[in-house]
Amino acid sequence: MTDKVESRIDRAKRANWYVVHTYSGHENKVKANIEKMVENRGMMDDIFEVVVPTEEYIDAKGGKQEVKQRKLFPGYVLIKMIVNDVSWYLVRNTRGVTGFVGPGSKPVPLSDAEVKELGVQDTTLPSIDLKEKDVIKVITGPFENFMGTVDSISLEKQKVKAFVSMFGRETLVELDFDQIEKI
Length: 183
What we know:
There is one protein chain. The chain is of the alpha+beta class. It has two domains: 107 residues, Alpha-Beta Plaits (2-Layer Sandwich); 48 residues, SH3 type barrels.
């Protein structure tokens, strides 16, 4: 694995969950704005996940039952991040954010128990013992029993792009982690 991928996994393990107060009704807009800014400014190594906690409920109107979603904590968004001057500033100055929850301007991280109680699934990146140019064998799917050479690895998507020899030509295919094994 490359150093950048390993450092992202290590940083994600060190990151904590924080609560951000928003204007009521703007939670999803704030989530989208933060995610867009993280992508545009290349902050993926500091801000890992933004969540608006919701729950499903059954709404019975006019004899019909519908499954709907509602926000558990209107006016709040959870963010998994490493707090530094840049990441704090980015979140704090997002349109719709009124501040972090904590004394003064210092955010207080949630404990693991609190995160679990809120029902937030921690999506830690999987680790896979592969690097570019490794030889793999496809074990399931349409390319089963084909051999290939790894071109790139995407931990976020849990996919590998590999060159597979088909009909005498090298063809780039995208495969899931569970479709391959290292040779």
